[in-house]
Design goal:
Layout (H helix, E strand, L loop, with lengths): L6 E10 L2 E9 L4 E5 L6 H9 L6 E6 L2 E2 L10 E4 L11 H6 L10 H13 L15 H15 L3 E5 L7 H18 L2 E5 L3 H7 L2 E6 L2 E7 H4 L6 H15 L2
Parallel strand pairs: 3-8, 3-9, 6-7, 7-8
Antiparallel strand pairs: 1-2, 1-4, 4-5, 9-10
The structure holds adenosine-5'-diphosphate and magnesium ion (MG).
């Protein structure tokens, strides 16, 4: 098992024009933390800072004991899965997973075994020769998860990875992610706009509002009687449209 390591943002400031972000928050090792918050609150920005797609104006980002603030994404001990477009359209499933081991796809026999294991673990055995367009949306996200498995990095960043899937498939994929995380112990940041996903998957919740952490605690406390005020407002506003559906 590749134990996870803690992820810390220390006094991190960042901005997109007028929109400022300020993060001072730690994600404990080997746990799943759900990152929740309204659209535009900075969830993706937070993950992009950890992954290295954005660089803070001030502050430090630590992965384990390593200060990665100035490192490029490729030098960081993370894997990231986005809502869509995780795969290369012209490469088959096995190659898309293989990229997690070798960007030039120079793969040893042992690497090919790892790829086969990851495909089996994610329910994709028999589909290794398919192109992304020959897969369902759920299968494509399984491929992305299989790639993260072979990369075997201690930190896994998930930016609404199942948001474009229907509810049943979303639950299934979430369960797969939870069981894989249990086996590997990666420190996982799961962005979702479904509080239910957080309740199901996460030990902790970090709730963002307007570019800052408005609340953070153990997940069960967000669903208890004295849940954070900002979170309650958010859940209220999310549930109304869902009920009228
Ligand atoms: P979330 O993922 O919580 O919906 P984001 O982190 O994507 O929010 O965005 C936070 C804010 O930053 C939004 O107001 C968004 O418009 C702005 N923003 C995000 N990415 C960029 C960018 N590349 N350039 C300029 N503004 C951006
Ligand atoms: Mg986002």
């Amino acid at each position: 098992m590749s134990e996870g390591v803690a992820v810390r943002l220390e006094d991190v400031s960042f901005s997109y024009g007028e929109q400022a972000f300020s993060f001072d928050v730690a994600f404990p090792e080997t746990t799943i933390t759900a990152v929740l918050g309204p659209s535009g609150s900075g969830k993706s920005t937070l993950l992009n800072l950890v992954a290295g797609f954005e660089t803070p104006r001030r502050g430090r980002i630590l992965i384990g004991d390593d200060d990665v603030t100035m490192l490029p994404p490729s030098a960081r001990a993370v894997s990231m899965i986005f809502q869509e477009n995780n795969l290369f359209a012209h490469l088959d499933v096995a190659a898309n997973v293989g990229l997690g081991i070798s960007p030039a796809l120079r793969l040893t026999v042992a690497d090919r075994e790892k790829i086969a294991d990851a495909l089996a673990r994610t329910g994709l055995a028999g589909k290794e020769k398919r192109l992304p367009r020959e897969l369902s949306g759920g299968e494509r996200q399984r491929v992305a998860l299989a790639r993260a498995l072979v990369r075997n990095r201690p930190v896994l960043l998930l930016d609404e990875p199942f948001a474009s899937l229907g509810p049943a498939l979303r639950d299934e994929m979430l369960d797969l992610t939870i069981s894989v995380q249990k086996e590997r112990g990666m420190t996982t940041l799961l962005v979702t706009h479904h509080p239910e996903d957080a309740r199901r998957a996460a030990q902790r919740i970090v709730f963002l509002e307007n570019g800052v952490v408005a609340a953070q605690d153990e997940a069960h406390l967000f669903f208890a009687e004295k849940s954070p005020e900002a979170f309650r407002r958010y859940v209220g506003s999310e549930q109304r449209p869902a009920q009228s559906r």
